[in-house]
Design goal:
Layout (H helix, E strand, L loop, with lengths): L1 E3 L23 E5 L11 H8 L4 E7 L13 H14 L1 E3 L7 E7 L5 E3 L4 H4 L3 E3 L4 E3 L5 E4 L5 H13 L4 E4 L22 E3 L3 H9 L7 E2 L9 H4 L4 H6 L8 E6 L6 H16 L5 E6 L2 H6 L10 E2 L6 H7 L2 E4 L5 H6 L4 E3 L10 H11 L4 E2 L3 H5 L7 H11 L7 H13 L10
Parallel strand pairs: 2-3, 2-9, 9-10, 10-11, 11-12, 13-14, 13-16, 14-15, 16-17, 17-18
Antiparallel strand pairs: 1-4, 3-5, 5-6, 7-8
Length: 427
């Protein structure tokens, strides 16, 4: 029922950042996709790369939409009690329910197959994995995860892997743009031997929180591996997929859930909707942040504004747009890669606290990003975009458009499983 861990597992658990070499001839990897069903997009190219090897893999991810109680007890006192048990004694109840997850298995023959932990195949497996309350066909050489800072991964899987001397590699689910108070968790390796980040800027920012820079591996996000295909498509054709036709400009508003940034940005979104949504030449589309849908905090929009909630549509929505408006976050990176003009709502002089932070942010982003004050002039054709600056920013934040990030992550897993030092891995 309970998992026990020593507080030291939140540090790097392996001396010299190495792990014991795996004993089999094939890489055997356990992938935890997290409680967030939307994180499936992070693993598409990784799974495809694995299918082109002789590796074996167990992959599981939530089959239902995450809710807040997946991560914190609803009751305030139970929440505090949970934190005390974890901080003082390393005890957390394991509420894992196998039916809440989708399971697939790669046996080295080139294709993932779906399975259930209750079927005859898996019942014949013999390596007990306490966090998921069922057996695996083997002891994993590596655990790959995307949410080491929360939920089942943090409280159950990583402590188990550390205890059994199985190296854990994490993938940054998003890219930090600058240092925020809410990002302090980035200063810890959280029991992992390596953290895969989106680009060189993320290495520097995570290091500013205290994370070892040499263990931040700037491979790039596997979720960006599909960007190249959108460069080959026509905007109008993609717009037709959503029934958008006959508009000169499509403006994409991408909201945020983080306060006080949310209140600041929502006021600007309201201004934009009031000013442009009634114009015959402009269509406004909204892509909410998934957490706003989770906690019900999304602002209301009039009927003539199209709200699209599917996370799988994100890159197509950006690619079909003529302008993206949002506070600078991970969403700016695919926009830079696709060379879509972007209005950053986090600017000096906008009555935001810690103005120096936003001066630094805009310095990092470079001259290719627009301010809100430039938006109207851009729509009128009076302001142009520095596309060379956009490309330069993308190489720093998003690495490349070669579509090989998933493959490089598999190579890193094999490298670590073979007992080599993470810091010697060549990108």
């Amino acid at each position: 029922m309970f998992t026990n861990k020593k507080r030291t597992i939140m540090k790097n658990p392996f001396k010299d950042v190495c792990a014991a070499p795996h004993r089999g001839e094939k890489l055997r990897i356990l992938i935890h996709g997290s409680e967030h069903k939307r994180h499936a997009e992070q693993f598409v190219s990784i799974k495809s790369a694995l299918e082109n090897t002789d590796a074996e893999c167990i992959y599981f991810i939530s089959n239902t939409k995450a809710v807040s109680t997946d991560f914190t007890p609803k009751n305030f006192f139970l929440h505090k009690f949970r934190d005390i048990l974890w901080d003082k004694f390393g005890l957390v109840k394991n509420n894992f329910n196998k039916n809440r997850w989708d399971w697939s298995y790669l046996d080295g023959n080139g294709k993932f197959i779906e399975y259930s932990p209750e079927n005859p195949l898996s019942r014949s497996w013999s390596y007990w994995c306490k966090p998921i309350k069922c057996n695996l066909p083997w002891k994993p050489d590596v655990v790959l995860c995307i949410s080491p800072h929360e939920g089942h991964t943090k409280y159950q899987l990583i402590p188990w892997a550390n205890k059994n001397e199985i190296p854990v590699i994490s993938i940054d689910h998003g890219c930090p743009m600058t240092k925020h108070d809410f990002g302090e968790y980035r200063g810890s390796m959280m029991g992992c031997v390596a953290n895969i980040v989106w680009g060189r800027e993320a290495v520097e920012i995570n290091a500013s929180y205290g994370a070892p820079p040499e263990l931040q591996i700037p491979i790039g996000s596997p979720a960006l591996d599909d960007l190249g295909k959108f460069l080959k498509k026509e905007k109008k054709d993609m717009q037709l997929n959503y029934g958008i036709e006959g508009f000169e400009k499509v403006i994409l508003l991408m909201t945020t859930h983080r306060e006080p940034l949310k209140s600041h940005c929502d006021l600007i979104f309201k201004e934009i909707v009031e000013k442009y949504s009634t114009l015959d030449s402009i269509k406004i589309v909204v892509k909410p942040h998934p957490t706003e849908l989770l906690n019900g905090s999304l602002m209301s929009f009039p009927e003539n504004v199209m709200v699209i909630t599917s996370q799988s549509d994100l890159h197509q929505l950006i690619a079909m747009s003529d302008l993206v408006v949002s506070p600078a976050s991970s969403t700016i990176i695919p926009a830079m890669g696709l060379k879509i003009p972007y209005v950053n709502l986090l600017q000096p002089g906008m009555n935001l606290s810690n103005e120096q932070k936003y001066i630094e942010l805009n310095k990092r982003l470079g001259e290719g990003i627009l301010s809100y004050e430039q938006m109207d002039a851009f729509l009128k054709g009076d302001v142009s975009i520095d596309y060379d600056a956009l490309e330069d920013a993308f190489t720093r934040y998003g690495t490349s458009l070669n579509g090989n990030n998933g493959m490089k992550i598999v190579e890193l897993c094999e490298f670590v499983a073979s007992g080599k030092n993470v810091m010697e891995f060549k990108i």
